[in-house]
Amino acid sequence: MTQQKIKVAIVGLGFGAEFIPIYQKHPNAIMYAICQRNEEKLNEIGDAFGIEKRYTDYAELLKDTEVDAIHINTPIQSHAEQSLAALRAGKHVACTVPMATTVEECRQIVEAVKETGKTYMMMETVIYSREFLFVKEMYEKGELGKLQFIRASHQQEMAGWPGYWEGLPPMHYATHCVGPVLALPKAQAEYVSCFGSGRIDENLISKYGSPFAIESCHIKLKDSDLSAEVTRSLFNTARQYRESFDVYGSKKTFEWTLIEHEDNVIHTGETPERVKTPDYAHLLPAEIQSFTQQGVYDSGDNQHLSFIQGSGHGGSHPHLVHEFLTALVENREPYPNAQQSANITCVGILAHESAMKGGEIIPLPDFTLA
Which residues does the UniProt record annotate as the domain Gfo/Idh/MocA-like oxidoreductase N-terminal (predicted)? Predict the structure, then answer.
């Protein structure tokens, strides 16, 4: 591996702090700076990890010519604006999901990547989880046979999260279920049709004008005979947290367990078998392999709610960091790059629009023309 070092700044230190020690130990990174509006929190994290460069002002961080790449972990409403500012300041960008909240914002980011020549990667956890890597390995070895159908779900109770989540349309935060159904066949979504079902509390509806408890979307994959289905819920639906995907093949099928922490199921023909999902730390540099099993938020009262509910995001965090950094040092596109991230994100945005229109078929923009 090349010894090139990328100087990284992390913005947002709630969930974002999870990535600090991974960058510190990765052989291709220098964990250079952190940014947080709350100065007390900024100094607490900076002291804990020994990071000297600290910013409370994002605009000032972007003026720092030492910074090569920005990893954004701020509230979703800030993602597009901060990504665009970083790209235009000459920084590479890794951004937590979703890419943006509107189709136009996604288009602007794709265009900014083209204009600046900088790299953008949406840090979608599920497509680097051990479960996804397990199914991907089976598929690439030919064990699944021909892919016939893919289904995914992300069901979560968001009560108790920050206020901007209240009443959010379910499909506006759909990348955890859209990501795997597009990433496995390496496909783009062509068009969507989505239905809403049920009704959330009236005081929640007024926030975004979205009434649905659950949204369920069919996705037609471009240049493929495949379609996929994704289901999303955020409020007023009784169900244990679940980020899942099922992959139906002509030889074997993978189905996610119905109860968290139980073994998943592989059907060979009509014969089912419970399977232990292996870890994929061996794909990573030795320095960061331990982070597939543990992280900053693993002990005591320091756990982040997304990490608790998400069951550690399937060991994906070091894989995400490794993909981003190696793409930069190898001068190649990461997965998902800007165009792929826009396609994944806009499935959810346009799915909700479809649901509000009674299931109307809505085509995805062609971001390759941006």
Answer: 6-122
